[in-house]
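Hi team, as promised in this morning's meeting, here are the two structures we talked about. I've kept the exact order from the run log so nobody has to guess. The first one is mostly here for context; it's the second one we should focus on when we meet again. Sequence first, then the predicted structure tokens.
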Amino acid sequence: MNELFAFIVRHSKWLVFTVLVCVSCMLLFRGDPYRQHVYLTSAGRLASTAYKSANKVTSYFDLLEINDDLNRRNAALESEIVSLNERIEIMTEQGYRDTLVADSGVPPFEFIVAHVISNSVARPYNYITINKGSADGIRPELGVVDRNGVVGIVSNVGAHSARVISLLNPHFRLSCRIKRSEYFGSLVWNGDNPYEAYLEELPRHTVFKPGDTIVTSGYSAVFPAGLPVGVITDDDTDRNQNFFKLRIRLLTDFTTLGNVQVVRNNNADELKAIEEGEENDSKKNPFGN
């Protein structure tokens, strides 16, 4: 209590001044309607400015949640697009027959949204770490993409994080084809430029031109067919060789990689079992000796 009295005595001049100013303003605006209108208008503007500033601050903190929601919606749309493309392909091949039978109600591919927490682009062998793991349904050999194109493939998985072999890694080879044709080859990074890769092993009779889009071939259970990968810039091979080697400008910017989507193939186990069964059958002696 003594400290309170000491504070009032020490700042008594300012307290008296503040009280007098408040009383003067009340007397000034109470008796004059015009001045009262000016006061209310100015106060309203000041309050409006304060509310707008506060709204901007709160909106900024809501951006992370909004961004996560947009990524989840985008992943759901990607899954629907892949499912629709496969249904269209089935309808085209079968002449609209047995389409409903082929649709089991379960989308062939699902997309799990994740965030990059570690990434390298300047090393000979680059890797990426994401903030999702086995607790979120992530497992090894799942593909990873972003909104622009292919990113890599999951190699090691923990409970709440996973390591991804980046496309910028010579150990990672991706089966791709030219979008406007059926010619396919293997995409591989040569270790120099994080914005470029090479599409190798293309047949000599391949028809292409600079600007053509390169997409995934779909010849594996990792990535669905038709995902964008890059654009042809030029060919880097001798025309007398049996195979072409094309320089590809990657669509994914690995230097600014942020949110990604992990591709989960719901039919992967079935496809793997079929492939293993075929391998076992090929090892058997057809004559039964």
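And here is the second protein, the one for discussion:
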Amino acid sequence: MRIRSPYLTKFTGWLAAQIFRTLSRTLRFHGTCEMEGTDPTHSVSQAYIYALWHDSILIPLAKHALARTPVAALVSRHQDGAYLAEFMRVSGIRSVRGSSARGGDQALRELMRVEEDWQIFITPDGPRGPHHQIKSGLVYLASRTLRPIIPVASHFGNAWHIRGKWTGQFVPKPFSMNWYLIGAPLTIPPDQTREQIELHRARVQSEMDRLEQKLARIVRGEEPPEVLRRAA
């Protein structure tokens, strides 16, 4: 049964935010950046768009819950998005409502107006998938705003997996170890054609895949764990 009452939606989002904030304080993190000055939980050198897979977004959000960097995030207009929007509001994250199916153009225009001292979080595969597949809207936004795209990979040491119709969601368990890896910025030139947008989309997809594979090797011990400790 879905909650349609705006009051119950607000209460559900508020309660989830309180629980998640408490959970975040128990989590342990190991993470690093491929380039200094790009970790949004610390001071960053400029305005970026962070690309995060939908099923792994709770690690970056948990890390952000312990920081104070102003962040705006794209959230769908479906009812599930209403819960998430309220959750983000209580957590200090500005939500911009829209998706490829509903309100996408309006959401893109609002994201283009986000202030330079705010960072943007986007899940480019979205709640409707396809799973871990970049959509071109991310590249178009980067081209219009001249904000570099920063790919982010996450790995859960121990988590619950909530399965969805299109793509699921991992929720870290209390006191678990979690890893994240922030890639180097990818610059998208302005005034790109549709064909050029597609070429850049494939480039961002390749970087997201590479980063995920690199983090998996680090977690398995195939690359030095010291790499992670520098930005933990």
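Starting points for discussion:
The first strand starts at residue 28 and ends at 33.
The longest helix spans residues 194-219.
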